[in-house]
């Protein structure tokens, strides 16, 4: 959870993670990106976009044991991480895995009245869309 403590404590964002978070650090020059390390289980460092909290924006999985800290190098594309495996890694964003790119673009929901709803990706042909728009107006 991310709280605004400037006046009265207000909950700003919630990012669900698979394990308790042990360390966080805001990404420099990126208002909505935050890096996190888990206390147990997860050995990677995830960078989250708090506007899309259910899947990491970027993941760095080089450590063999739980990551313990993150230090940005002043550049939003470069940071260092430490781990219980006694290693220090220098990370560059172009090397990150992007979990959202591998996510399944379909979804399904079932209501308590047994109604089924689904969503899926539709590839739009721009020329066909323009023709349809012309017919509507």
From TrEMBL:
Keyword Repeat: yes
GO cellular component, as recorded: cytosol; GATOR2 complex; vacuolar membrane
GO biological process, one term: cellular response to amino acid starvation
Superkingdom, taxonomy of origin: Eukaryota
InterPro entries: WD40/YVTN_repeat-like_dom_sf, WD40_repeat_dom_sf, WDR24
Gene3D superfamilies: YVTN repeat-like/Quinoprotein amine dehydrogenase
Keywords of this entry: Repeat, WD repeat
Protein name: GATOR complex protein WDR24
């Amino acid at each position: 959870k991310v709280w605004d403590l400037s006046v009265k404590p207000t909950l700003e964002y919630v990012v669900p993670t698979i394990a308790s978070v042990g360390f966080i650090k805001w990404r420099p020059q990126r208002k909505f990106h935050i890096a996190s390390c888990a206390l147990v289980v997860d050995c990677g460092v995830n960078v989250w976009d708090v506007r899309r909290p259910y899947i990491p924006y970027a993941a760095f999985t080089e450590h063999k044991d739980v990551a313990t800290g993150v230090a940005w190098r002043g550049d939003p594309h470069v940071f260092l991480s430490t781990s219980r495996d006694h290693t220090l890694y220098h990370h560059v964003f172009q090397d990150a895995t992007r979990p959202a790119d591998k996510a399944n673009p379909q979804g399904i929901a079932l209501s308590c009245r047994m109604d089924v709803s689904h969503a899926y990706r539709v590839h739009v042909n721009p020329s066909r869309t323009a023709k349809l728009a012309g017919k509507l107006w």
